[in-house]
Write a structure and sequence with these properties.
It comes from Gordonia westfalica. By secondary structure, this protein is mostly helical. It is built from 7 helices and no strands. The mean pLDDT is about 95.
C-alpha cells in the first residue's frame, strides 16, 4: 500500500483531524495532500505510526464501524494505562506503544 493509499484509507476510517493528530501535523490540509500524493510523509516514524493506526482501525471497523474505531482511538483505554490509543501512539515510544495499541485493538475487536 502506498503512502497515499494508506492515508486515504485511514482518513476514511478515522477522519482527517485524527489522522493529522497521529501524523503530527497541525492542519488537515497536509492529510489531504498526503492522500493525493502531492506531499510526502517526511518522517519515517510518522509513517510507521499511521501504518499501526491503520491496522488497529481496520481490525475494529471490520467488527463494528469506522465511527466505533474513531471513538475507540480517542477514548481512555484501561489496557493502555487509561490514556487514549491515539495519544499512546503519538506521544509514546512507538516500539513499545505500537504493539500495545495493536493488542488492545485486537482484544476490543474480539470482545467488543
Amino acid at each position: 500500500m502506498s503512502d497515499a493509499e494508506l492515508v486515504s484509507a485511514l482518513r476514511d476510517l478515522l477522519g482527517a483531524e485524527l489522522v493529522a493528530y497521529l501524523g503530527t501535523v497541525k492542519e488537515t490540509g497536509a492529510v489531504r495532500q498526503w492522500a493525493e500524493g502531492s506531499r510526502a510523509i517526511a518522517n519515517p516514524t510518522d509513517k510507521e505510526r499511521l501504518r499501526i493506526a491503520y491496522r488497529a482501525a481496520r481490525m475494529i471497523s471490520e467488527r463494528d464501524s469506522p465511527a466505533v474505531a474513531q471513538a475507540w482511538f480517542q477514548g481512555l483505554n484501561p489496557i493502555l494505562d487509561d490514556i487514549s490509543p491515539a495519544r499512546a501512539l503519538r506521544d509514546g515510544d512507538l516500539d513499545a506503544e505500537g504493539p500495545r495499541v495493536l493488542g488492545a485493538a485486537r482484544q476490543f475487536a474480539a470482545v467488543g
